[in-house]
Amino acid sequence: MTENPAARPIFLDRDGTLIEEVHYLNSLHQMRLIAGAGEAVRAANRAGHRVVVVTNQSAVARGLISEEFARESAEHLKALLAADGARLDGYYDCPFHPQGKPPYNRNHPDRKPGAGMLLRAARALDLTLRGAWMVGDKRSDLETGAEHGVIPLLVRTGYGRATEGDLPPAFAEQGGRIFEDVVAAIEWILARDEAGRSPTGEAARGNSLSR
Questions:
Q1: pTM value?
Q2: In 26-66, which residue ranges form alpha helices assigned H by DSSP?
Q3: For the ranges 2-11, 46-55, 64-73, which has the lowest average pLDDT?
Q4: Alpha-carbon gap, residue 135 to 51, rounded angstroms
Q5: Is 85 helix (H, G, I), strand (E, B) or coil?
Q6: Would you tell me how many other CB atoms lie within 10 Å of the CB of residue 79?
Q7: What is the total count of domains within the chain?
Q8: Is residue 210 part of a domain?
Q9: What is the pLDDT of residues 144-170, one digit of tens each?
Q10: Distance separating alpha carbons of residues 159 and 162, to the nearest angstrom
Q11: What is the span of the domain harbouring residue 143?
């Protein structure tokens, strides 16, 4: 399907959201998609949404992986998604951490909850951030882009269940919702698309596990 200009961008965290959390992934064999994630991204592609991964990769700063491995893991993820007929429109990672090793030991604006990666994607892909979705399992994900009108969606995979118990009031104020996983989050987004195209325009419930 061709791009739908009205479809809002979907930003996805990687570890614990799109792939299973393994705590500092350092082997391609460790990378496994969340069950159904490939099919969900494919559905978003077909609905005209731009899908972009934005991921903190402080393992580089900590000396646990190299930048070369970070690039290899990005390509491997794209290959896993391609096997399900899905694609990413963009992939951005941030290797910096304030307590890391030189030259990565600084608080770079790309590091979530900083909005640097979203802003880079917006420039490169001509995206509008207001009303875009940010799907993740940590508070740093949910706070990313808040000042630009990005809407946070929490998933319970990865560190999501722990995050759910410590959500700030701003989460609900920004229109935040909670889902069992990225599949349910994307299903809900696509159901909202359908509701927007329906004669009534009523908000869709879909199959989400949101609250």
A1: 0.91
A2: 37-46, 58-61
A3: 2-11
A4: 11
A5: coil
A6: 11
A7: 1
A8: no
A9: 999 999 999 999 999 999 999 999 999
A10: 6
A11: 10-197
List, for residues 164-200, the tens digit of each pLDDT value.
Answer: 999 999 999 999 999 999 999 999 999 998 887 655 4
CA 150 – CA 134 distance, rounded (Å): 7
| pLDDT for res 196 | 73
The CATH number of the domain holding residue 72 is: 3.40.50.1000
Residue 38 resides in a domain: yes
Contacts of 92 (CB under 8 A, 6+ apart): 52, 53, 54, 55, 110, 117, 120, 121
Look up residue 19 and give its amino acid.
I
Q: Catalytic positions, please? A: 13, 15
174 inside domain: yes
